Amino acid sequence: MGSTGSAGGGRASRVLRLLLLFVLALAAVEYLFGSILDASPLRTYLNSDKTQLLTSNRGATLNVIKPPSVNTTNAVPVTKKQNMAVTHYNQTMATKVISEPPQVSQTSILLTRLMETLNNETTDMTSSNKNDSSSLPLCELPADLGPIKANKTDMDLATIEKKFPEVQFGGRYSPPNCTARHKVAIIVPFRDRQQHLAVFVNHMHPFLMKQQIEYGIFIVEQEGEKPFNRAKLMNVGYKESQRLEPNFTCFIFHDIDLLPTDTRNVYSCTTQPRHLSAAVDVFRYKLPYKTLFGGVSAMTNEQLRKVNGYSNKYWGWGGEDDDMADRLKINNYHIARYPMSIARYEMLTHKKQRPNPKRYQLLSQSKSFVKDGLSNLDYKVKQIINYHLYTHILANIDEHS
Ligand SMILES: *[C@@H]1O[C@H](CO)[C@@H](O)[C@H](O)[C@H]1NC(C)=O
Ligand SMILES: *[C@@H]1O[C@H](CO)[C@@H](O)[C@H](O)[C@H]1NC(C)=O
Ligand SMILES: *[C@@H]1O[C@H](CO)[C@@H](O)[C@H](O)[C@H]1NC(C)=O
Ligand SMILES: *[C@@H]1O[C@H](CO)[C@@H](O)[C@H](O)[C@H]1NC(C)=O
Ligand SMILES: *[C@@H]1O[C@H](CO)[C@@H](O)[C@H](O)[C@H]1NC(C)=O
Ligand SMILES: *[C@@H]1O[C@H](CO)[C@@H](O)[C@H](O)[C@H]1NC(C)=O
Ligand SMILES: *[C@@H]1O[C@H](CO)[C@@H](O)[C@H](O)[C@H]1NC(C)=O
Question: Is the N or C terminus of the chain more exposed, i.e. has fewer CB atoms within 10 Å?
């Protein structure tokens, strides 16, 4: 395997050369077009004072998550270009994702090229370090799955971050030694539950890693003054996670206050939509009613598309999951569950939310799922930040639908 070794060496020196070239070119560009560069995301990356950036972008919002450590190397707030131009950086540093093309100047074309080249090289390097994922065997479930304890003591994110170096920024993970069978987006509707966030990610990462799945955790926070709309936030989480990472095939909608306590409860999707949180401690591990679909549930891309996602109409607590159960029924799905001995959860304590007084009325209305859901979803992304242990999506969903 000497040839592999020398190829690796050649590649490394190529990267070094490119790096040098990149820095030189950058200096030249900076010298010539300094003022143009001011507006470029690269500038943000190179020079940003993170606290300043964050506070200035967050000033207007009340319920923004404030994690202890934000690393600008990996987390850059969204530029507010029409609210939708999302720029994010991940650990490879040179990767840039922009959903709408910004005004293109020659400088930025040059920069994009340079960054692309550099990125091509770095990804090359990482894939040669890691075994080519396509050649890795499919992951098998480990033999030692079973009941686990939930640690529900208060903790802070800064300490937890150190515990999971294998998790990539944005709360992403894929098994290093095998090809995952499932690519799962964990979508967590969020508002005012800062104290649960650390406990949740601290529990979920080891739980999911153990199951050898590829996953990302998306915390979807509602901005604005209207009552909490869990279902609409889940639609937003689905849309945005698809946009950020088109390869997710399975979507698990997850309340932040539920912690699974048996690793045999595999976080994957099945041919039927699956209700995962069947046995919750506060309901004495009994299923309250047969069509319950709230708490934690899993659906594939195809299932979600077929039922047009969740309804957007449920403002305030309750009703939206029963609405989904109706949608499933109309589309000839049935709700699948694991045995009650496996689908076990513990709930974190919190103040009871005020139920939506109109929830029964909404449920009993004759309704067309075709017109209300993903098809008429309307929202504005305010900010997307890749933190170490999760991707934070802040969205305003007050408008229209
Ligand atoms: C940011 O990340 C770099 C490299 O990962 C690390 O050396 C540095 O300590 C981090 N800064 C903070 C504030 O966490
Ligand atoms: C960085 O983002 C790009 C594009 O989203 C992705 O292909 C790549 O795998 C990411 N790398 C890491 C280390 O997360
Ligand atoms: C980087 O790789 C992509 C896809 O492999 C290719 O289309 C692109 O031309 C490459 N860019 C450079 C500068 O080599
Ligand atoms: C790559 O795979 C081979 C055989 O499958 C194994 O011997 C080797 O240790 C792996 N390398 C890494 C870096 O995982
Ligand atoms: C719970 O997690 C915290 C923070 O990681 C840790 O300090 C504490 O020892 C843990 N408690 C138990 C019972 O594992
Ligand atoms: C992957 O393989 C390496 C080397 O065999 C091992 O040390 C490591 O624990 C494995 N990781 C996982 C998650 O199984
Ligand atoms: C998405 O999946 C395809 C096919 O499985 C693969 O070729 C591609 O590299 C994946 N993209 C990302 C960003 O993981």
Answer: N
Enumerate the H helices of 301-367 as residue ranges: 301-306, 320-330, 359-364
Ligand 6 binding site (Cβ under 6 Å of any ligand atom): 175-177
Angle between helices 230-244 and 320-330 (to 10 degrees): 70
Q: Which amino acid is at 172?
A: R
How many angstroms is it from 164 CA to the middle of ligand 1? 14
Pairing of strands 279-280, 391-396: unpaired
Rounded (10°) angle between helices 106-129 and 2-37:
150
Burial class for 215, CB neighbours closer than 10 Å (0-12, 13-18, 19+): buried
Distance CA 322, CA 311 (A): 10
Tens-place pLDDT, residues 355-397: 777 777 777 776 778 889 999 999 999 999 999 999 999 999 9
Exposure class string for 133-164: b at 16+ Cβ within 10 A, else e: eeeeeebeeeeeeeebebebeebebeebbeeb
When computed from its CA atoms, the radius of gyration of the chain, rounded to whole angstroms, is 23
| pTM to 2 decimal places | 0.65
Contact 30, 345 (CB under 8 A): no
Residue ranges and CATH numbers for the domains of the chain are: 2-129 (no CATH), 138-396 (3.90.550.10)
Find the 168 Cα to ligand 2 centroid distance in Å: 9
**Residue 160 to residues 53, 148, 157: CA-CA distances in angstroms?**
24, 18, 5
Q: Which ligand is nearest to the CA of 90?
A: 2
Residues β-bridged to residue 278: none
- What is the CA(116)–ligand 7 centre distance, in A? 18
Q: CA-CA distance, 237 to 186, in Å (whole number)?
A: 9
Give CA–CA dist 173/215, Å, rounded.
6
